[in-house]
Amino acid sequence: MPTFSAPDGTRLAYRTHGAGDPLICIPGGPADSAYLGDLGGLSAHRRMIVLDLRGTGRSALPDDTSSYRCDRLVDDVEALRHHLGLSRMDLLAHSAGANIATQYAARHPGNIGRLVLITPSTRSVGVDITGQMRNELAQLRRDEQWFPAASAALEEIAQGTGGDWEAIAPFFYGRWDAEARRHHAAGQPDNQEAVALFAAEGAFTPDSTRAGLAAFKAPVLLLAGEWDLNSPPRALAEVAGLLPAAALDVQPGAGHYPWLDDADRFVASVAAFLAEA
Questions:
Q1: Domains of the chain (ranges plus CATH)?
Q2: How many other C-beta atoms lie within 10 A of the C-beta of residue 75?
Q3: What is the pTM for the complete model shown?
Q4: Is the N or the C terminus of the chain less surrounded, counting Cβ atoms within 10 Å?
Q5: What is the pLDDT of residues 49-106, one digit of tens each?
Q6: How does 228-264 read in b/e, with b if 16+ C-beta sit within 10 Å?
């Protein structure tokens, strides 16, 4: 696996899939980027360069753990761009990785050709996701066999009375089948310190990020899952409104990992966006 040096000397790794024009990919979590795979076959259209965030996957642990903070991870993305010798890059981010990508876009708007945000977190831009939004989406799954236990756990979590986080996992997939169970089990973050410090105080400055994004002219695709409790389509519509050249695409029957729920539909949408002149 190829590596490069971050500005603070931490050795970072990345995975490559496919051939053609590069597409830099930032995972969520922070978790081992292996959970992304090749995004359902997107590597047939672009050379995917998938970053392992510091302290995850095959990237090294940093000496300074405060560097796990989201805003500081922006510098790692810029270091990867320099390492690859790209004057501009197309950038894709999933889930919490979108917080890195949006802060990168606000700071370095001229370095991005096209930006793809897959079921993105909204914390970096200060868009609230309400309990009502999540509950409305949860009710769409009420005919599923697993719904009673998952719904009860979700209610306990929402009320702050505990709740079994494992029990709500089915809400994040369009189909809670054997493949989804395997994906969920394999994709759990194993560096809890990186997870805890990702959103440490100072990690997000929504006002300044919004101001930067207001001047970001590159095309942006926000892809939402119709049933995604983590990144509800209503919240992502609000995020799209913050970007001058953004389009929102809601994938029917999809959860937080839409490339698993309908790979053909997902790849067709993202590849078409990236291929636009």
A1: 3-130+189-275 (3.40.50.1820)
A2: 15
A3: 0.96
A4: C
A5: 999 999 999 999 999 999 999 999 999 999 999 999 999 999 999 999 999 999 999 9
A6: bbbbbbebbebbbebbeebebbbbeebbbbbbbbbbe
